[in-house]
Amino acid sequence: MELTLTGERTLPGIPVENYWFRRHEAAYLALRAPLRGAVVLEAGAGEGYGADLLAGVAARVVALDYDRDAVVHAAATYPGVAVVRGNLAELPLAGASVDAVVNLQVVEHLWDQPGFVAECARILRPGGTLVMTTPNRLTFSPGGVTLNPFHTRELDAAELAELLAPHFTVTRMLGLHHGPRLRELDARWGGSLVDAQLAAPPGSWDAALYADVAAVRAADFELRTEDVDASLDLVAFAARR
Domains along the chain? Predict the structure, then answer.
C-alpha cells in the first residue's frame, strides 16, 4: 500500500520532501550504535523506514503505529520488523518487556503526553532507555504559531526534560543542527533553506531549489550537546528509574 504525503508524517523517496526525511533519518542513524543488541519498541513508527534502520543492529524491533494504512504498508515493505497496530495511549506490550523505546518526532502529536511517558516507563525493563526526539519549539515555532496543524503541543528542552522527569532521568540532551553544507545552503537561500521551502508550494519551486532540496543527505546534519536551545530538533536519552 502506497502512503500519501499529508504533512502528518514524512515519507522516503519524495524529492520535495527529502529535506524533512533526511532530517528524521539523521536521528535514526545516530541511534544505531546505542541500541545495538537491544529489544526495541518504536512507538509511532509511521512508514517504517526508521524501524527498519534500527532492525539492522537491534536484537528485535517492534514497530507500533495507530494508523491502519501505515501498519499495512510497513508490514509489507519491511519484513525484518515486527509491525503492530495499537494506541500509544495504552501500549500493547507487557510490563518490563523491552530494553528501549524509541519515539521520534511523535510526542508533539499526542494529546496525553504525560500518560504516554508513563506507558513507556511501564514497558521498559529497569534501567531501560527511552529515546525521544521532537521539534524544538524555540526554533520550529518562534512566533508561537506551529507550522504543523497535526501538532498538539510542542516543547523546548526544559519542557521536554520536565515531561520525562516523573519516570526518567535524562542522561543526554542533544540538539540536531545543520552541518557545514546545509549552512552554505542556508546562506544561498536568504538565510534559511527551510524558509525557502515553506515560502511557496513545491510545485512552484524553481529548479535550483528543487535540486538543492533533493540533494540533502542525513550526513548534512549534526547532533551536538552545545547550543541545544538553538537546535532544530531535540534528542533526549533518558533512563527508566
Answer: 15-177+224-240 (3.40.50.150)
